[in-house]
């Protein structure tokens, strides 16, 4: 299951908090409003009932009054209903059946005791208030007031409050989302800085002053970046220093070897063979040191400028005594292409040397917009070997089979690094008709 | 016999290179410090000077500057350092060429020969009557006389700078690539184009009123350089 994100969790907590809070407030305000409204309604109803009771009391004071007429003379709206109990007999205004059943026993008892009272009842499922007022003699006046309107008002109020609570909860969630975005912004800055460092910009640092709350994180991050940069620099300097320190003794070896080599004719066969081995290995040693130094400083960005890739390819071929017509520029190749001339020259040179050494010699060198290809006549590179053939000190089966003594095992690694310095790639594929096809891609963006 | 002065503080390199250069037909004289080198060159000038950059006492850059102040002897730097910064600084100090250790003796000899061969044309030229003048506005180049004049005034250029200027002057208004110039002036079959760039910069300081926007010796981006009026 996908873990729930921090933002979601915080937003949910905000929403829940807002919901609980707004629900409490809504319930409280609903309850107090309900109480106030009912009390108000009750007071009004009781006052009206007393008024009506006074009228009825006066109306029935005489001997043998027409009770129904008296009741009918009352000005009651549609929401009031009056009842009179006189000497155990029930009277109402209309011919409708007397609703005496609605009068609760408790109220009857109170009236019998000569006390006025009011009680809320449910009649046919409708909320009503019944007020009982004892009159002179053995009569009791009851008035039933419908509370349906009040109930409707309260229901509307309840709905409004519920809607408000939901809206507040949604608002809480939105605030949570917004707040976490702001709270997480420093983390976004850290992520961006980490990405930049991964992309190779080791000078990227966070400013702890801009986000005081995450200052420890910023400081730790900067510390890490410092260590990383220092470590990389140490490694690089070590590689450079080692190669550097090897150069002076190599110069002595080279010069001394050349002195002996001049006198090879005077040496006996055995010594001459040994000298041959010595001078060959000095040469290889030189190449190795040069290649190592090249790799050691390869993290520097490519110095791109408009370069005539075709002319460059012709030159590289000529240096290796290959015919210039081996180079073929495909249609649509622009006159110049942004490239680091030194690096591309070396990369292409390495590919051609590779083809000469292990690929039965180059067959064609093709130049296109943003790419260079070298085809060879060798056995090609087997699918499983393609992934790591550009790694350092990796030699293909062709190199191993030859007991190769010339290569440094770094040539293709340098090709890959040079391509990468241009933001491009080095790949190998099958050439249609046999052999390998090495390709360098250099996208055109100027660095 | 061509003579060469080797200024190198590493005893073994000094000894082995001296022997190897002698094998190549040079009369080699080797010293261990820049001070000795400058003194030796004043006393008994060699045809070419090889100098290391990291020397005890006076360093290679200062040594090049002092040698250059005295005359225009071809100077080749032989150094283990190959940072662009070091190479450019050495060339700007006045070196004619730069090779990184370890250099093959054959390669070194070829470079020395190229510098001498090119330089000799200019040196022997004064005996030849002035025949041609190549004019580019207020700039005059006399290849046979080995002379450069700006608004009639002679300009002091080194032999290599002069060869570079002549090469460009021979192709007025034509763009020569850095590689073409390297081949023709320095005799490199392939090499470091920074050598050309720094020499062009040095020449501009001598023949241009405003080196920031040169009038005669202009860069054609991506292609090379050309000389124009």
Describe the structure.
The complex is a heterodimer of chains A (447) and B (229). In chain A, 55% of the residues lie in helices and 15% in strands. Chain A has 447 residues and is an alpha+beta fold. Chain A has 3 domains: 6-154, PAS domain (Beta-Lactamase), CATH 3.30.450.20; 213-296, Helix Hairpins (Orthogonal Bundle); 305-441, 2-Layer Sandwich (Heat Shock Protein 90). Chain A has a 5-stranded antiparallel beta sheet with strand order 2-1-5-4-3. A 5-stranded mixed beta sheet of chain A has the order 7-9-10-12-11. Chain A has a two-stranded antiparallel sheet with strand order 6-8. Chain A is rod-shaped and about 170 Å long. Chain B is built from 8 helices and 11 strands. Chain B is 43% helix and 20% strand. Chain B has helices spanning 11-23, 34-43, 60-70, 84-93, 105-124, 159-169, 178-186, 194-207; strands at residues 2-7, 26-31, 48-51, 75-79, 97-100, 134-136, 139-142, 147-150, 153-154, 217-220, 224-227. Chain B folds into 2 domains: 2-122, 3-Layer(aba) Sandwich (Rossmann fold), CATH 3.40.50.2300; 128-227, Arc Repressor Mutant, subunit A. Chain B has a 5-stranded parallel beta sheet, sandwiched between helices. In chain B, strands 6-7-8-9 form a 4-stranded antiparallel beta sheet, with helices on one face. A two-stranded antiparallel ribbon of chain B has the order 10-11. Mean pLDDT of chain B is 85; it is low at 119-129. With 229 residues, chain B is of the alpha/beta class. In chain B, strand 8 and strand 9 form a beta hairpin. In chain B, helix 4 runs parallel beside helix 8, helix 5 packs across helix 6 (159-169) and helix 6 (159-169) packs across helix 8 (194-207). The A-B interface holds A 244, 247-256, 258-259, 262, 286, 289, 293, 305-308, 311, 315, 319, 336, 341-342, 345 and B 10, 12-13, 16-17, 19-20, 23, 78, 80-82, 100-106, 177, 179, 189-190, 192-193, 221-223.
